[in-house]
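Quick start: read one record
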Amino acid sequence: MQMKWENLCIDLSWPKRKNLCTFAVNHPQTILILMKVLLLDTNHPHLQKSLEKMGFVCDEDYTSSKEKIQEKIHRYHGIVIRSRFKIDRIFIDHAKNLKFIARVGAGLESIDTNYAKQQDIALIAAPEGNRNAVGEHALGMLLALFNKLKKADLEIRSGKWLREENRGIELEGKTIGIIGYGNMGKAFAKKLKGFDCEVLCYDIKENIGDDNAKQVSLHELFTKTQVLSLHTPQTERTKKMINKAFILQFKNPFYLINTARGSAVVTNDLVEALENGKILGACLDVLEYEKASFENFFTHGNTLPEAFQYLIASDKVLLSPHVAGWTVESKFKLADTIVKKIAALEN
């Protein structure tokens, strides 16, 4: 008796069979419909190896244009991406069989999340993977700025030995205000625990303060803060949040740390505050001039904005190229977090 085609096919839409080879040998009549995943950015090898062990078929494409990817995306059930391009409604409409989008990073602002959810596409991010790196980077930048390490280092290399001019200040006794108390904000607060400083946090969610930070109102944050650290996602609410009007609400002159998103700070207003002393110094891992995919914006013939030229020249400012979460360890942790979250989708 001839078997019907439906009985010959088993949909392995999630990696439920650990040993596909054994299964195929024991069931030669069965056609396995496997989950295919397209890797759009290079990542730690642990990610691809783990997905393949789970039963996924992984293809790599790190160079094709977005348009070329759109032409073939209907063949895939999952995407793993960092920040190569935006996944918008048009792209999603081409992805007829997509089950999940995994971003190897903290935020999902490069994805039309609302439309993806409407299409029953699971969205995965990995803020747990680089939160420790961000916390350490923010603390490192602050300590370097407080102790004038960049200025002192450059002066010694140019033959200057200036001690009084490089007298630092201490973190002990200061009040640190954190805006955004999720994975990154909590990691930074944890690092501050041994410095004998007061740590306050503000977040739109209620009751998220802990032993490392006291949740307060914006008014209390404005009143007490001496160092402000941003750990917010990129949303319409956070874009240009740190502007002149916002800065003027702080009672005390303060230092600013931004390891979140460059779009949160209006650079022209930051420079004005640095010039008039309302902001005493700034640690900036991110800038509003960054492109969405974070590539080098020092392009040939590109005139740098005047405000950015000020930041480059100022010894009150410490800059890094969006690498706060970019460590040897976090590269593995991000990949491992994505793997675990994809595996959890089948449960």
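The longest strand covers residues 279-284.
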